[in-house]
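Sequence in, structure out. Go.
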Amino acid sequence: MASVKFNTTEILDTTHIPRFIKHESIPDRDIVVMPLARDDGDIFIAERYGQKRIVLQGILTATSMSNLETAVDTFKDLFRGVQKNLDISWAGGTRRYVATCVRHDFDRDHFNLLFVPWTAEFVVPSGEGKDTSSTVALNESVLTITTPAAKSFSMLGSKPARPLIKLQGSNWPADVKGIELKNTDNSEKIVLTKNASWQIDDIIRFYCDEKKATFETSSVEIERDFFGIFPNFDIGTNNLKVSAGSLINQESLEPDLIAHSGNNITATTFRRAQSFIIPKADDTFREIVLGLSKTGSPGNMTVRIETDNGNKPSGVLADANATFTIAAADVGASLANVQKASTNLWALSANTKYWIVASAAGVDGGNYYTIGNSTPFGTVVPYSKGNYSYSDDSGSTYTDVPGTVLAFKVLYGGKSGAGSCKLTVSYTKTYL
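Output:
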């Protein structure tokens, strides 16, 4: 050992003379299991590490009997501190534990006039130790975010750390109003949105340890609400994807549009609608995606986001900007995803039913649109927060089709565009 400090006071010296510092044993590992029904053994459910215990032992010395009494009292006062840094240094590094002494014994015999053996036991509630300085795992000076960017980084230690992920704009796209970070190894992701003009050097930080997300502009860092969860990362290689704008908020989960049946719009009085609900209010919605094909030469399609009225579309826009025009030239003869942006951003409220309502001009039996149906076999329900409904009388009446969902996506975080940023991933090595 090169140094042992508690609450910044050195105890690896000629006064305290530690004999050993046992800090490398791992915390107790609790295993949650469930007995198997009508069979031997258990099945593994989950695991967690508990608190860590560190034992120090040594000899306290002094130059006289009275000085020894003073040294004992001073030593006891030092270890009285609660949740203080216990820093243990060796081999060129320092491992820090936030610890509390729960037992401090002096094994004094009749001849202990100038020295006395001592033992101290510390509890580390977090069960972990950390380096006293951070490590940069990834430093990408120019990350192109025109399309989702994939990067890898590695972490060391004996327990997975929670990194700080920083994105500093060098050329934020004007239409981008949201950033998504996703650990593609476990599909955990987090999103931060902001409906305002972004400056060229604005900074977004995701503090995975403190569980907070911030947005810094003009050197002022402000904590922001976020969507999703802070991704967990593992020891070794981790794969990170950064997406800017055009982020998926709601979608039907069936990816294969080619095999889908469809719902046709063959008359101007037809309305084809899909309901959805978002979990958290946001004002950076901009785009939708529908699975579309066309037959012949129909006129333009109009798509609106409408409010709900008695479990059917109300005919009233949810937001003045929540309307889209899809031209026939945007749609092919084969069913495929068609992505369309509104002129401006629009807002939606949380836990409120909305409807995507599609109609078209210039359509008949030979010139029409088909909207993909996400349940080609009638057995899969790929979206649980809404369903398909249709009207053949310009929206006066609607008929629900439970268990059927249109192929759709509702996108937020503004709109993607050409741009770049600087990506830095740093972490503090963590140990059991």
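Check: The mean pLDDT is 93. The domain at 249-412 is CATH 2.60.120 (Jelly Rolls).
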